[in-house]
Amino acid sequence: MVGIEMLRCLKRRKFPIGNLKVFARSARDIEVDGEKYSVSAISPEGFDGIDIALFAGTEGEKGAAVTYAVEAVKRGAVVIDNGADFRMEPKVPLVVPEVNAKDIKKHKGIIANPNCSTIQMVVALAPIHKEVGIKRVIVTTLQASSGAGKNAVEQLKEENSMIAANGYNNINVNAANKTMAQQLAYNVFPHIGGFVEDDYTSEEWKLVKETHKIMGDKKIKVSATTVRVPVRTGHSEAVYIETKKPIEPAKVKELLKKSPGIILVDDPKANLYPMPKDVEGKDEVFVGRIRRDPFVKNGLWLWVVADNLLKGAAANAVQIAECLISK
């Protein structure tokens, strides 16, 4: 799903392309939005003459970049990898252009794209951190099925169809194409990635460690709960922060409104706030429901939503490539 979105982003953002090669495990022809692409079987030799190699990656799996990134770099390419394999490598920049574009110049051939949930959160938090400092973050993510890949989207679709065909009398179903740990239709579950240290999932630890690396501040206390929800595309996050210095919600709105890559949608009395159905297909991060905690000094809530396939993956990778050629 991310690979197809990368093709769309390159075209939509008018990225200057001399020669485009598309690789997969096996050769075939594909069609994206009416345009045909010839897909070649991936091989080390295929990267000869390539300047920038975008690896789509599947979140939570070992991506093709593990096998082919070094080969691509040997042949002169700069690799931008959407997978998780290189993110925490000390010599690999982990980049969100609106936050730390300057880190791109540190690359040794590989640049890592952060996790989708991390990307949208740090885009929203970076302007606040720069202004008054952030000492604590508590985040609950509500992550769409597409974050787990095409098969997860099919599972959700199949489960919804099965429940509808049953007249909604029984919402417990067992889809033939089940790829997630639990049923997703008419359900939510707090399980994304494997359970690791201190009973947090790997996805939850990504939010901690990647935020520290991108923001360049390991002192920020980050705690996360990641939840899968029955949405096709678009991750939502309820983000609670404690700032070092006081700042009013009105000032936060002013900051975010003028920050690159952010669209402020914050008029709850008029029922205006970011929702996944409205951000699908958009490259920006949408923020709303900004309000202070009436019981904790310097406590603030934000609601952050973004298309996980675009800003959370493909668009961020293409933006990195844009920064790369601009320098």
How would you describe the overall organization of this protein?
This protein is α/β, with parallel strands linked by helices. It has two domains: 2-113 and 313-326, NAD(P)-binding Rossmann-like Domain (Rossmann fold), CATH 3.40.50; 118-154 and 184-308, Dihydrodipicolinate Reductase, domain 2 (2-Layer Sandwich), CATH 3.30.360. It has nine helices and twelve strands. The strands form three sheets. The protein has a six-stranded mixed β-sheet. It has a three-stranded mixed β-sheet with strand order 1-3-2, with helices on one face. Strand 2 (28-32) and strand 3 form a beta hairpin. Helix 1 packs across helix 9 (310-326), helix 4 packs parallel to helix 6 (202-215) and helix 4 packs across helix 9. The radius of gyration is 20 Å and the shape is globular. The model has no long low-confidence stretch (mean pLDDT 96).
SSE layout and pairing:
Elements: H1 2-12, E1 22-24, E2 28-32, E3 35-41, E4 52-55, H2 65-74, E5 78-81, H3 97-100, E6 110-112, H4 116-132, E7 134-143, H5 150-165, H6 202-215, E8 221-228, E9 235-243, H7 249-257, E10 262-264, H8 276-279, E11 285-292, E12 299-306, H9 310-326
Parallel strand pairs: 1-3, 4-5, 5-6, 7-8, 10-11
Antiparallel strand pairs: 2-3, 7-9, 9-12, 11-12
Helix pairs in contact: 1-9, 4-6, 4-9
